[in-house]
Amino acid sequence: MVDANQYINQHYPNGKDIKELDTSKKNLTKAITLDNFNSTTRLNASFNQISTFMIKRQLPLEIMDFSHNLLTNFSILPELNSTIQKINLSHNYLSVIGPISDQLTHLDVSNNNLTNLNLSDYVHLTSLDCSKNPNLTTLILSLNSYFDPKDLSNFDCRETNLGTINTTSFTIECYNGIRSVITTLDTNNPSKQSTDNKLYIGIIIGMDLNIDILVDLKIKGYYLIGCGETSG
């Protein structure tokens, strides 16, 4: 096993000019800080034993892969990074995820230990994999984001404890990922049927919230969907 920062400093002494940094499958441990990097837009640190990621200044990172590591929490201060668009945090030990980037479009947090996932600030999010978090009971998504439920690569909630997601056009059983499209027949025009199979997010999925939080979120315009019931 090799200390991650020691490995990076030894193999990339001129890191300030590196656009893409690949340290995957190097058996790296401890923390990655990228202290000597200024121009890196892509970071692949997957398949290591990294437990911490920290940056102390703003970097132009856009794509990050920390899958298959030992992370238990992850966050980036908003003032330090607003450019990350895609991040893979799957196959870690995450129980908490803090702020990442307001430009985030793709997030994979599958195979972790999450119980609550608040993504309400990520208005650009279009793809989410939160599957295989067996204790995940609450998912909060932005009012302005939407997913295509017909495509598991865009929204996967299988093997979680989120229950059933109900909308006017489809249902999703989060345990097994089965989607059932609800077809509404217009009696005035039998040939016209509902084809709107998008999940327009402005919702909270799950029931594990106390009453004060529910009242506050309801005032802000969110809706609660989960366990076969809907209220708003």
TrEMBL record:
For this protein, the parts annotated as crossing the membrane are none
List, alphabetically, the InterPro entries matched.
Answer: Leu-rich_rpt, LRR_dom_sf
Q: Output the SUPFAM superfamilies linked to this UniProt entry.
A: L domain-like
- Protein name stated in the entry: Plant intracellular ras-group-related lrr protein 9
Q: Which organism is it from?
A: Gigaspora margarita
Lineage here is:
Eukaryota, Fungi, Fungi incertae sedis, Mucoromycota, Glomeromycotina
